[in-house]
Amino acid sequence: MQNLFITSSGKLLADWEKAFAAAQVYAAASPEFLKAASKAKTVIWLHAGNPKHDVGGSLRQILQAVPQARVVVLSNMPSQQHAFEMMSAGASGYCHAYSAAAVLKEVRSVVQHGGLWLGRELLQQLINVSATLVSNQPDQVADALDKLTARERDVAIEAAKGLSNKEIARLLNITERTVKAHISACFERLKVKDRLQLALILNDKSSRQIN
Amino acid sequence: MQNLFITSSGKLLADWEKAFAAAQVYAAASPEFLKAASKAKTVIWLHAGNPKHDVGGSLRQILQAVPQARVVVLSNMPSQQHAFEMMSAGASGYCHAYSAAAVLKEVRSVVQHGGLWLGRELLQQLINVSATLVSNQPDQVADALDKLTARERDVAIEAAKGLSNKEIARLLNITERTVKAHISACFERLKVKDRLQLALILNDKSSRQIN
DNA sequence: ATCCCTATTGTCCTTCAGGACAATGTTTTT
DNA sequence: AAAAACATTGTCCTGAAGGACAATAGGGAT
Predict the structure, then answer these.
(1) How confident is the model at residue B207 (pLDDT cuts 50, 70, 90)?
(2) What is the DSSP letter of B138?
(3) Could you give the CA distance from residue A128 to residue B49 in angstroms, rounded to a whole number?
């Protein structure tokens, strides 16, 4: 059971070293590295630090040489799109390069047992976005609105346009407190956490993903 | 550090007991259970065995009483949609009720440290679905992003996904104050009044108008 | 060398969002 | 008739958003 790091600097970050004191470091996926990588129960940590570095290329090279390799991509600037590119390409994990040692140990534990790892925030984003996508309803907006009472619908539509609670109260001739009550009810019914997500759903934008 | 199970049968499955020998079992989210659940570092295992059982209701009840509770849903018949419902509703984990003891220990380890857990197959499905969502940005979005500096773009994209300033600060390794500065700059450049309108633009939803 | 832009950060402040707990009255459903 | 759902509203509270005023430092353009 060993940990191999690939980072262009050839040096381990403090938390990497703290997590895996006996880890080996390589500057590239050299033949020497690939030989070491082919040993059983090896976790490979692939540093995506330099934006010009073709991490995807390195990942493919590693997986071609060692198909069952467990590769965790460590990104200096994690993004949802990059995470999916890496995971789709066969990485077993994706997390922040500056993750604490305890987190890295957790990641190692999960992936060496065959699991997949995404950081909490990326996973939460994925869950938030996908929760509305899994439904097979053709018209998501209509379906969402159907879940609301008439008054909730009125309030939700105005909120989705960007109006404040005060503005909606004036428009609908009710108090701000009533607006808040309906808004909160909409959050519960549509399973969204705030008015921004509500707005995205009702403007039919949650189906398109930002990278 | 304790493990509490809620299962209508009142009995632990073999692997549950094997994983957590000292676990306590409850047939429902009784006041007695809620008192035990409020202790620090408790992991709650909520069995979704009986299809008629309102697991979502139990989950909400638990989280209402103990907001920081770590709840893992154990489903006899896991499904993608149910997984997202549960995770969106605030569960920290979702896995098969018949998972091996070693897996359950892994789950416990991840969630008690604040992480989220989805089983490998569900996660893989999620990754597969989401990877297809990555697409070329519509022109309007590209135009808007072109008006921003690189850092503003980074911040704007995360804000448009619904992240809070604090979350963006953690993600990009900058302070919340810096995030606010970039956000405000984005508002000025794109001539929007708040992050909701920013989100609509960057999710390409402002082109479709609610009437 | 100087200026401008960008990035980052601090302190302080007001307003708003969202939620908790509570309540009354009307309409619809059982 | 009774129960449930819906609509409305109040008081109180915390946390977040957004902005004002201020500052330093690095890099690129002039």
Answers:
(1) very low
(2) P
(3) 25
User: At A122, phi and psi to the nearest 5?
Assistant: -65, -40
**Interstrand relation of B42-48 and B24-26 (parallel, antiparallel or unpaired):** unpaired
Q: Which fold has domain B2-129?
A: Rossmann fold (3.40.50)
Q: Provide the 10 A C-beta neighbour count for residue B128.
A: 12
**Residue that has been written with the tokens 């808004």 in this structure:** A183
The tens digit of pLDDT for each residue in A24-35 reads 888 888 888 888
How far is it, in rounded angstroms, from Cα A70 to Cα A63?
A: 9
Q: List the domain boundaries for chain B.
A: 2-129, 139-202
**Smallest Cα–Cα separation from A87: which of A40, A137, A51, A122?**
A122
B34-70 pLDDT, tens digit each: 888 888 778 999 988 766 677 877 888 888 778 778 8
- The residue behind tokens 């006899």 is B76
For residue B53, give how far its alpha carbon lies from the nearest alpha carbon of chain A (Å): 19
**Residues A160, B210 contacting (CB under 8 angstroms):** yes
Task: Tell which of A205, A206, A207, A211 to mutate to test the B interface (max B CBs under 10 Å).
Answer: A205
Chain C positions with any atom < 7 A from a protein CB: 6-11, 16-22
- CATH class, domain A135-202, is mainly alpha
CA separation, residue B164 to residues A28, A100, B170 (Å): 37, 22, 10
Helix, strand, or coil (residue B71): strand
Q: Is some CB atom of chain A closer than 8 A to the CB atom of B61? A: no
Residue with tokens 């963006």, as numbered in its chain: B168
Amino acid code (one letter) for A193: K
- Name the CATH superfamily for A2-127: Response regulator (3.40.50.2300)
Residue A135 tokens read as 């439904």
Alpha-carbon distances of A13 from A5, A42, B10, B174, rounded to whole Å? 10, 19, 48, 19
Determine contact, residues A138/A176, Cβ cutoff 8 Å: no
